[in-house]
What does this fold into?
Amino acid sequence: ETDLEKGFEALRQGKFILVYDNDDREGEIDMIIASEFVTPKSIATMRNDAGGLICNCISSKFCDEINLPFMVDIMAAATEKYPNLAELAPNDIPYDERSSFSIWVNHRKSFTGVTDHDRAMTISEMAKMFKDGKFDEFGKTFRSPGHVCLLRGAVDTVKNRRGHTEIGLAMCEMAGVTPVCVVCEMMDGETGQATSFDDAKKYAEENDLVLLRGNDIIKKYLEEY
Ligand code: 5RP
Ligand code: CA
Ligand code: CA
Ligand code: ZN
It folds into this structure.
């Protein structure tokens, strides 16, 4: 069994995989899990062991079904009334051409929205909504702003962008799970910098997780999809 196959199996079993994007990009390792399996314990693990932003990535096709915009498009549309927003255009991201950020949401049954319980509910219920094709329930089920950042995957995932957003969604597609997944950057608790590959390797071994390189995932996807 290759590491990639172990990664597909882990996603199907609702376990975390660790993914390093690339030296020529962020150089970060994200913990990634299929959203349909997220529990309060998964959120606690990401808070304690990863520490980055907990974001919910959604495939381009699902985003189209609910007409979910990128944040940059919302801001561009609002510049007539709020001209300052035009000055904030993210045209200088040092590692990529575009950001995948969309809006932030909470499940309407959340209290504050930030607890492990609330974030797990927001994330897992959103995956279920998409899985069941209940696209017209988006606004009925969620409110915005909230405490879970939604990331909009590029069309055809890694063919058009090579972020953790697309790498995670490509893994879901290849593993055969609903293409909605959580990503959270692993941060070094001592230095405050991104966790190094060696430290992530150690963490993966201690916790029986697979650590993958984004390039291997991209290569596989481009060969077969
Ligand atoms: C949200 C981020 C992270 O880098 C996350 O990995 C998703 O972004 P990208 O697709 O750019 O890697 O910016 O915390
Ligand atoms: Ca990023
Ligand atoms: Ca609050
Ligand atoms: Zn990233």
User: Anything to note?
Assistant: The longest strand covers residues 142-152.
